[in-house]
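Box 3.1 — From sequence to structure: SHOCT domain-containing protein
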Amino acid sequence: MMGPGYGMGYGMGGGVWMMLGLLLIIGFAIYYFMKNKNNSNNGFNTSQQAPGADAMEIAKNRLAKGEITTEEYEVIKKTLL
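Predicted structure (token representation):
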């Protein structure tokens, strides 16, 4: 027979496997949360859009619905651009 430290005992090797497993779980958790964070913007990356792009779309929609006049739209357009 072999002495202590040889063979299929857990020893320090078990701790290494637990640490690797923990690191894998943490890595998957980070990946999952980062992926969901990016999908929360409905597929659009807002950091790549022009600063006033959303506001201009809202103003255009309000003009099309008749909620604002063309003069009000022009004031909003000048303010945003």
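Summary of the box: The mean pLDDT is 77.
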